[in-house]
Amino acid sequence: MMQEMGKAQRGSRSAVAGQASTGKKKSSAPAALIDIADTLYRTAVTSCSEHRRYADLVERSVADAEQKSARLAVRACDEALDEAADLYEVACLKESNHADDAWWHRANMVWRAAKEFLRHHASSDKMTRGAPGHHGRGELLELTIEYKLEASAILRLRHTIDAYREVRPEAGPE
Q1: Domains of the chain: residue spans and CATH
Q2: What's the pLDDT tens digit per position in 135-149?
């Protein structure tokens, strides 16, 4: 089963990598890294947008079916964000001589913020899925703190997205 999951992840990463270079001539290593950074940026934008959309639906108490659909979209976006962050990390290991490039510093900020957000999101999900209805006062306090850390992390991700857009407006949405 683990092998199948690994194959699926590699296949998804290949899809993300393919999206980064779709419709473009074969690019040099620096241009390929910029494409991957742009993919990370666009994926982070989509993930933040879907989280905002889901929160709005929950706040308005829309029908459970619509909330479930939004939850599935959030999950898919977060998986894509995780894959894009991993792809960027691997690409930086191969090509890391961009210390003087503003886009590279901003992309690294997006990468770090995405990893932190995903870590807090996974932690709060794990805590929430624990023994339902059996949370003690201490566990509820921990869960509250983790939710606040997750909210702070997604806000930080949003700020890094804005910073990346300043140096790479041609990267895409918003």
Answers
A1: 28-171 (1.20.1420)
A2: 677 777 887 888 888
